[in-house]
Amino acid sequence: MYEINKLDENAVIGAKKRWNSIAKPLHGLGKFEDCIARIAGIEGTLNVDISKRAVVVMCADNGVVEEGITQTTQEVTAVVTENIAAGKASVCAMSRAVNAEVFPVDVGVNAEVAGVKNRKIAYGTKNMLKEPAMTRDEAQRAIQVGIECVGELSKKGHKIIVTGEMGIGNTTTSAAIVSVILDKSPEEVTGRGAGLSSEGLSRKIEVIKAAIDRHKPNAADALDVLSKVGGLDIAALAGVFIGGAVYRIPIVIDGVISAAAALCAAEIEPRCADFMLASHSSKESAEDLILDKLGLSVVIRADMCLGEGTGGVMLLPLLDAALAVYNEMATFEDIDVEEYKELV
Questions:
Q1: pTM over 0.85
Q2: Which are the contacts of 319, defined by CB distance < 8 A and separation ≥ 6?
Q3: How confident is the model at residue 284 (pLDDT cuts 50, 70, 90)?
Q4: Which candidate, 285, 290, 287, 286, places its Cα nearest to that of 266?
Q5: How far apart (Å, rounded) are the C-alpha atoms in residues 326 and 19?
Q6: What confidence tens digit (pLDDT) does each residue in 59-98 have?
Q7: Catalytic residues
Q8: How many angstroms separate the Cα of 241 from the Cα of each of 52, 168, 272?
Q9: C-alpha 46: how far from chain center
Q10: How many other β-carbons are positioned within 10 Å of the β-carbon of residue 200?
C-alpha cells in the first residue's frame, strides 16, 4: 500500500493570504486562485512551480466496439496512438504551444505501436456485453502502470500532469462505470461520443444496460466495476490519479473519460480527490455529475470533445497567467493602500 498524506493546510492558507494581499479585488481571479492554492497545498510550498509539465495519454482498445457502439472501427486506436507517438496529433501540437511533454502509453492497444511506452496488459479488453471486460488482476495491473508512470515523471522533475486517453469505445466504458458507481441510469450518463446518430446512441445505451445487468458489478468496489465494464485505459488513468496523491503532483482531469478514471481512483483512495484539478466540462452529460461527487468544479466551459488530454492542456496557460499575478503583482502594503476586507 502507498502512503497518501493530506494537503499541506499551512501552504493552502498561506497561498490564499498571498492572493488576498495582492493589489486587486478580493477573489478577482475566481477559481484560478483556488487552483493555485490547491497546488500550493499539494507541493507543500507557497512557491508554486508547474514549469515542467507532462501529458500522459493512456491508450487501449475496448472489445465492446464489436457491438457497433462507435462511428469508427477499433483500428483507429492504433492509428491515433501512432500519431501521438510521432508528435502529429492534436494534443501534441497544443502541448508544444504550452511547453508540455506528451507521453503516450500502450496499456492495451490491439496492435503493436512503435514509439510509445509499452506497458501492455492485454491486446484490448473483452466484449463486456458477453463477458467481463478483463480480470480483476488485469485491472489492478493497469492501475499499477499509472502509479508507476507518475513515479517516473516525478523523478524527472515534472510538477503537473494532464491526463489523456485514446481508445475507441471508451465513452461507452466510462458511461458504464459512472452509471454503476453513481447509481444513475445509462440514459442519464451516456452521450454521443464521437458523433453517434440517435439510433447509435440508443444502441450504446442498450449495450451498457445489458452489460451491467449481466455482470452486476459491485458499486462499492471500483476494482470490480473496472474489471467488469471498464477499460484498460481508464484503469491506468485511475492509477495516474492515485500516483498524483502518492507523489504529491497535481493531476489534471481532462473530459468525461478522464473524470470516470478520477472517480474510480477516489473510490479506491478517497484522499486522491484533493490532488486533482478539473479543467473543462465536455459535451458528455456525465462529467458534471462526476465532478460534483468529487467536490470539484471546472474552470473552462467551451464545449470541447476532442479527447487525448486536449481540454486539460488548455488549462495550463491559464494557470501560468494566474501564477504571473500571484508571483509578480505588488501587494497593498507595497503601494501603501489599505487592503480589501471580506464583507458579509
A1: yes
A2: 32, 35, 36, 39, 50, 160
A3: confident
A4: 290
A5: 6
A6: 999 999 999 888 788 999 999 999 999 999 999 999 999 9
A7: 308
A8: 18, 22, 7
A9: 25
A10: 16
